[in-house]
Design goal:
Elements: E1 2-3, E2 13-18, H1 23-38, E3 42-47, H2 51-58, E4 64-69, H3 71-81, E5 88-92, E6 102-103, H4 107-115, E7 120-124, E8 127-133, E9 136-143, E10 146-151, E11 158-164, E12 167-180, H5 188-191, E13 204-211, E14 219-221, E15 226-232, E16 237-241, E17 247-249, E18 254-259, E19 264-268, H6 274-284, H7 287-296
Parallel strand pairs: 2-3, 2-4, 4-5, 5-6
Antiparallel strand pairs: 1-7, 7-19, 8-9, 8-18, 10-12, 10-16, 11-12, 11-15, 12-13, 13-14, 15-18, 16-17
Length: 297
Amino acid sequence: MTPISPKDIPFQRIVIAAHPQIGEAHAEGQQVAAFLQRHGIDVYAGTLYEDEVRRRVSEGEADLLIALGGDGTMLRAGHLCAPYGVPVLGINMGHFGFLIEVERHEWPHTMRQLLLGEAWIEERMMLAAHLHRGKEILQRWDVVNEVVVSRGQYVRPIKVTAYVDDLLLARYVADGLITATPTGSTAYALAAGGPILPPELRNILLMPVAPHLSVDRAVVLSEGSTVTLEIGTEHEAVVSVDGHDPVHLENGDRVHVRANTYPLKFVRFRGRGYFYRNLTSYMNWNPTVEKESHRGN
């Protein structure tokens, strides 16, 4: 985590990317752009999947990407920016943004902090995943949260044999198996009963989903490990990465997962203990309970 000095990283070229399906996000992005332009910053404001946004990031014309949306928007922004070393700053337009730094009403203050260099860069480990069928690599992914191998529409468990550095770790009979980053430990893996890993760690988490008479414990692996998941199934099985559309798996397919060669960079303004303060809010936030409370009032 490296402090930002105004003289070293002034962020002179900023891309603003709003979630395309949140109308308020685009309007708010235009206001952020106007604020930054008044201070002499080169700004392009668009939506996350816009060609010009992607071009500017991939061709080195962005020092920073500001994403407006929820945690899903941050995941997509991370997939876009991490390979090019472009940091991401999130402005929350959703309900609860666990990955997001700035609430909607806070951005005028934090933009001033940004211009003054009063921020720091947090680096989070990503994963690289490959889907193999025989000798062919069918698909590759950069992973922010998790790789999930799971059953499809049929309510039957699948068999997954997990190897770590080519050595047998365990044979799972389960609805699925999650391979997660520390960032992903607070996502699906947490819902499945897994441990919470601080974001500065560089470990890989294996977490079974609804195991059937097989290993039911989470396993935390070292950063340098390579995980191979071999699929055994006679019915539908799928692999999904960071909530993307699932990809069909066949019996004998293998998913290889390892630490990525580059991290995802987030711009932060709060103290380095922010994660635990966020965690408390996250664990106490329950939209169902909140709705029932308001209904009672």
